[in-house]
Write a structure and sequence with these properties.
This protein has about 500 residues and is an alpha/beta fold. The chain is about 65% helix and about 10% strand. The protein is built from 17 helices and 9 strands. The chain has helices at about 10-20, 35-50, 60-90, 100-105, 105-120, 125-145, 150-165, 170-190, 195-200, 200-280, 280-295, 300-330, 345-355, 355-360, 380-395, 430-435, 455-465; strands spanning about 145, 195, 340-345, 365-370, 375-380, 405-410, 415-420, 470-475, 480-485. Strands 4-6-7-9-8 form a 5-stranded mixed beta sheet. Strands 1-2 form a two-stranded parallel sheet. Strands 3-5 form a two-stranded antiparallel sheet. Helix 6 runs parallel beside helix 8. The longest helix has about 80 residues, at about 200-280. The protein is rod-shaped and about 145 Å long. Residues about 1-10 and about 30-35 have low confidence and may be disordered.
Length: about 500
């Protein structure tokens, strides 16, 4: 990690402290004692937090920050405790010469140097300095003849090296240096001219207890940072899993949409192939009819004989155009679903009236059976198109002089509308094709053509109104196309299933 250039600037350090902690630089008369104590506590905590974050950079991950946070705390407290005993011994008249004071203060100075390096973002150099110099200067204290009771700090140095040093070689070197120093100083060499244990037992006990406390405190901080890092990883993994689930869901939806678009495009191609052919027939028939009338090349009797075929073609074409417009509208999401109370008597009467001419061409009678007036909750335009398509389909597959019956009856909370014809009927395979495919069409009894678009719209519109198409048929016995719609009873609007 690149550090800041230059050497330690005392003025910059003090100025920075004045800006961050002005409490320590103004007159005590400006604030009452209780408030000042509380503020000092807050500022002390703030100072400790700043010391913990020495060396933090934006490129560090949470694990690196956690290690550096622990490392800074330990060095700060080791500096405080490391300077206390030499100062007490020096100023307490314990026959402690000034040279010994400087030697005894060396371990604390190492911690101060480490914090200085971290302040300038040289935390890697700070770690190497700590794990090499700290056991060396501590050994120097003992080799100078002073036993200050800091032998357990060699153990602390080895424990910290395992956690902080990234390379195995560095870790083994630091642990080896600490253990060799400990073995040499306390097993082989036990000759010291100054024994803190006999000079001041309480200070000796303080050093021993503080070393033990540092070991447990370091392990506690390491465990805490590891737990926080693990929790952070778990939280990140949870967010990533949720994001991945959303992506998978979006992927599935996109694949479904792609499949629908592919199917829709295939249907469009088939429809336009049929439409491009079928639209020509009635147009050519009308053109030929009017041309013959204009040129008077055919007699009135011949023209009259041609009209039924032209009318039949026009009936088919108008039905095709109507279904095509509704289909385009539904695919463009422009078909508004507007359910309301719908009078089935009026709706079925209008559908019968529209198709009466088409039925009379084949001399087919259309009748309606209903015990009373029924009101259903549905979209009027959609239901009207469903009825027109089912009636047109029944006329198409019913031979001349056949019969079509529209039966309306109540079934619990719904009303069943059935279109029953005496036509050619269908086998199970044909019925299955109608249910499974969006595109199915065969020629009628009078060779009427179709696109299959009508039944596709019927199923789609019934689904939007909470119903479905049921088909009952046998070859040669006619067909029954039926569907249900929710009844409106006692002016109560039923709930339409989505």
């Amino acid at each position: 990690m690149h550090g800041k250039p230059g050497i330690f600037d005392t003025n910059r350090w003090v100025s920075s402290w004045k800006e961050r902690w002005p409490l320590f630089f103004y007159n005590s008369s400006e604030q009452s004692k209780p408030s000042r104590i509380e503020t000092i506590s807050q500022k002390s905590f703030s100072i400790l937090e700043d010391i913990k974050s020495l060396g933090f950079t934006r490129t560090m991950d949470e694990l690196e920050k956690g290690k550096l946070r622990v490392f800074n705390q330990l060095n700060f407290f080791q500096f405080i405790t490391g300077i206390i005993v030499p100062m007490i011994c020096f100023f307490g008249n314990y026959k402690f010469p000034i040279s010994s004071f400087f030697v005894a203060s060396l371990p604390a100075c190492v911690s101060l140097i480490v914090l200085y390096l971290n302040f300038y973002y040289r935390y890697e150099a700070g770690m190497l300095t700590y794990f090499v110099l700290y056991p060396l200067v501590t050994s120097l204290v003992y080799m100078s003849g002073m036993n200050l009771g800091v032998d357990l700090y060699f153990i602390l140095n080895g424990v910290l090296a395992v956690f902080f040093l990234p390379l195995i070689s560095q870790m083994l070197f630091s642990v080896g240096l600490s253990m060799i120093s400990y073995f040499f100083l306390f097993i082989i060499n036990q000759q010291y001219y100054y024994q803190l244990q006999t000079s001041n037992f309480f200070l000796y006990l303080f050093n021993q207890v503080s070393a033990i406390a540092f070991i447990f405190y370091a392990l506690l901080l390491i465990k805490k940072e590891n737990n926080l890092y693990q929790f952070g990883i778990l939280a990140t993994n949870k967010v990533l899993q949720e994001t991945n689930d959303k992506i998978e869901k979006q992927k599935t939806e996109i694949e479904q949409k792609a499949a629908e678009l592919t199917e829709l495009n295939s249907l469009k191609n088939k429809l336009f192939t049929v439409i491009s052919h079928d639209m020509k027939t009635p147009m050519y028939a009308l053109r030929n009819l009017f041309r013959s009338m204009q040129q008077q090349s055919v007699s009135g009797k011949e023209i009259k004989a041609m009209i039924p075929d032209v009318v039949s073609d026009l009936n088919y074409t108008t039905g095709l155009m109507e279904n095509l417009l509704h289909w385009v509208k539904s695919q463009m999401n422009a078909a508004n679903f507007s359910p309301q109370a719908l009078d089935l008597e009026t709706t079925t009467h209008d559908a019968m009236h529209v198709l009466q001419l088409q039925a009379s061409t084949k001399k087919i009678s259309i009748e309606r059976e209903m015990e009373q007036a029924y009101y259903v909750f549905a979209d009027g335009e959609m239901v009207a198109l469903v009825l027109r398509n089912l009636l047109s389909n029944a006329i198409k597959f019913t031979p001349e002089k056949g019969k079509i019956n529209i039966r309306i009856k109540k079934e619990g909370s719904v009303c069943r509308i059935s279109v029953i014809d005496s036509g050619v009927g269908m086998d199970k395979e044909t019925i299955s094709c109608i249910h499974e495919n969006n595109y199915y069409s065969t020629s009628g009894t009078a060779k009427e053509s179709g696109t299959g678009l009508g039944l596709m719209l019927v199923k789609d519109f019934l689904s939007k109104n909470g119903g479905s198409l049921q088909i009952e048929s046998k070859p040669g016995e006619g067909s029954i196309f039926s569907f249900t719609l929710p009844l409106v009873e006692n002016n109560k609007i039923p709930v339409v299933p989505e």
